[in-house]
Amino acid sequence: MIEYVEVGVGSRKVSVRLAEATFLVGTGKSLFLEILHKVVSGVGKKLPRLGGDWGLYIQSGDVSYSVAASRRRIRQSISVKGEEAVFEYIPAKPAHRLIKPIDMAIASADVIMPEVKTEEHVSVVAEEDIERLNRLVEVARKRLGVKTQMLGPYISPRSLIDANARLTSLDRHGRNLAGVLSYLSLRKPTSYDAVKTAFRKIGFSVAVGLAKPGKIGVVVSTRDLKMPLSKAPCSAKSFLVIATALELKPDLLLVDNFDYCLTRKTAEALAALLRQKPTKLIAEIHNEEVAEWLDIPNKSVVEVKL
User: What's the confidence (pLDDT) of residue 166?
Assistant: First the structure.
């Protein structure tokens, strides 16, 4: 699990030691979450194009990774137990190189935590070095490439979704919630029941099923009312999406605009869920008081200036 994060934009930088729940206040909070999400969720994929100069450093124990990007070059560093590999990508040429501990051209230095692959003829000694470095990269990928779920800045689940769209992950706005709930009800009924139980604690019930030919629908109800999911109160919709996200068991749950529609009642119920899960929450908030609403022993409020 990632324990420490640094994000830099231009000449500005913010450092965060992650708690079980970390709340971000200040300026550039959404950008912090965006950079962290795009890198951590994209291990092994192409580096994100974010524009301008930016950087990220993440650490878990004796394993760390950093990327420093500018328009002219992108440099990545991986360190495991003090052993380091450094990669450089120059887009204009383009040039892909491993520059430390040995200097050689590689196939792709424009992916996050790249493997050392080369078409050049190398000596037996160099082949051994390449194998050792690829083992180092694999360790870093496993330790730092954690499962990440991004939500927000606005959560707006739809009432209906195509019946064939039983999905295993949420989009960041929760629009496909009906498909995910359908998947959980069929494949992971214990998780589906946990979502329903949590939802009842804030005074609502939820049901998912075939609403009309070819469409799966979600209905939300109270003691007195029944309504399609899209017509439910904002706080209830946000709670249902976050509760479902937690049942998908991400290592990191990143929520942009976390306090949008949040009430004390839903905050207390979310805190109860978070205390039961190993997931770490990183949430962007506008009102610092919101952090006090969540009864979580290990939490922190960090001011961001990016």
Answer: 62
